[in-house]
Design brief:
The complex is a heterodimer of chains A (about 150) and B (about 250). With about 150 residues, chain A is of the alpha/beta class. Chain A has four helices and eight strands; from the N terminus they run E-H-E-H-E-H-E-E-E-E-H-E. The longest helix of chain A is centred in the C-terminal third of the chain and has 16 residues. Chain A is globular. In chain A, about 45% of the residues are buried. Chain B has about 250 residues and is an all-alpha fold. Chain B has a domain of about 90 residues. The longest helix of chain B is centred in the N-terminal third of the chain and has 58 residues. The chains are: A alpha/beta (about 150), B mainly alpha (about 250). Chains A and B meet through helix 1, helix 3 and strand 4 of A and helix 3 and strand 1 of B. Strand 4 of chain A pairs antiparallel with strand 1 of chain B. Chain B: This is CCD84 protein. Chain B: Keywords: Coiled coil. Chain A: This is Thioredoxin-like protein 4B.
């Protein structure tokens, strides 16, 4: 069962979500609705949202609407997904250089579910950074060298 | 404790192995035996015959040399392995850069000398740092690379949309530990106060005082929030009903 994921369209709405979602992982997908890889990712998010509803709340955010956040999180590639718990930004070590966000889409729904579980459990134990359970081969690689050009 | 000739064996001598002069040692041994009244028979057993000692010394030297040789071999092998790994890494990165060079040049009409990315031999990472090209990293070797080279991603098929380098004009971002946007409140028109108001605080203080009164006092469980109708009257113990007060319990 899947449904349309809710959207946040302004900085104020994003602020409110971060500050008000309690005791669950807040998932913010930064991207654009009609981008190819975003569509892939959004599909996975929508299909898993119901099963994860006890542990996670998911919102879609268009990068054009929230330049402050796009800059703050240094989002150069979309989709980029950022995780929070009780107002705290959660970092994840995916084996890639950037622990502040997940870039690209997940290979399978299970990968996303496993990641949410790990973040949830880590947050419950007071951890601010957790290690991703996803096979590093399934983590999309992107090149930071572009920023040097 | 020192041996019976009064010196530590191995004192002096560059390799730590010495053989004390034989006659002197014999005299010292004999005296030691006499002085300590040790059994004469034991002396034979305790004394290491010269040949045995010789043999031991030689074997020791051999073992030492052998060990040193093995260690050196091991270290050289490790160095070779590391060099090999670095070489393989460099080659992988070169190949990746190759693809980027051509990809990037196709996307933007960047004016570069055509031979810069003509082939793998040309797009090699510079041995010295002074050669600059748009595709090469600044430092040679894997220590200068930001991403771990892994060719598996090329098969994963995700071409991510690049939305531009995020310039913050010195404001900082998540990587530099800048203040997060959800904590920067400027345009919010509502009350800026965090926490309860002054009246709520006074009420809270009253409640704290109440906690100090005896718990079993009459009316401690008075429910102040319950609603009563207009016809409510306090219970005088059945005054308006029949019977004694205690009967109304």
């Amino acid at each position: 069962m899947s449904f349309l994921l809710p959207k946040l369209t302004s900085k104020r709405e994003v602020d409110r979500a971060i500050k008000s979602v309690a005791e669950k992982v807040l998932v913010l997908r930064f991207g654009r609705d009609n981008d190819a890889v975003c569509l892939q990712l959004d599909d996975i998010l929508a299909k898993t949202a119901h099963d994860l509803s006890k542990m996670a709340v998911i919102y879609l955010v268009d990068v054009n609407n929230v330049p402050v956040y796009t800059q703050y999180f240094d989002i150069s590639y979309i989709p980029s997904t950022v995780f929070f718990f009780n107002g705290q930004h959660m970092k994840v070590d995916y084996g890639s250089p950037d622990h502040t966000k997940f870039v690209g889409s997940f290979k399978t729904k299970q990968d996303f579910i496993d990641l949410i579980e790990v973040i949830y459990r880590g947050a419950m134990r007071g951890k601010l950074i957790v290690r991703s359970p996803i096979d590093p081969n399934n983590i999309p690689k992107y090149d930071l060298l572009y920023q040097g050009i | 404790r020192p041996s019976c000739c009064g010196t530590w064996p191995g004192a002096g001598g560059a390799d730590g192995v010495t053989v004390s002069p034989r006659p002197e040692h014999h005299r010292q041994t004999a005296r030691f035996w006499r002085e300590n009244r040790a059994e004469a028979a034991l002396r034979e057993r305790c004394l290491v015959p010269a040949e045995e000692y010789e043999r031991f010394a030689q074997a020791l030297e051999q073992a030492l040399a052998e060990h040193q040789r093995r260690e050196e071999e091991r270290i050289l092998q490790m160095a070779a392995d590391i060099r090999e790994a670095e070489r393989r890494q460099r080659e992988t990165v070169q190949a990746a850069l190759q693809k980027y060079c051509s990809f990037f040049l196709n996307r933007t009409q960047l004016q570069t000398e055509p031979e810069l990315c003509a082939g793998p031999s040309v797009c090699r990472l510079p041995a010295g740092p002074e050669r600059d090209s748009p595709c090469a990293a600044e430092k040679p070797g894997p220590s200068g690379m930001l991403t771990g080279p892994d060719l598996a991603w090329m098969e994963s098929g995700q071409v991510l949309t690049f939305i531009g380098h995020q310039e913050t004009e010195g404001k900082g971002n998540v990587h530099t530990g800048a203040k997060p946007p959800w904590l920067t409140e400027e345009e919010d028109g509502s009350k800026q106060q965090i926490g309860p108001s002054y009246e709520e605080f006074l009420k809270h203080k009253e409640k704290q005082k109440l906690k100090k009164l005896p718990v079993e006092r009459v009316g401690a469980n008075f429910d102040h929030t319950s609603q009563t109708s207009d016809s409510w009257l306090p219970s005088f113990g059945r005054v308006w009903n029949h019977g004694r007060r205690w009967q109304s319990r």
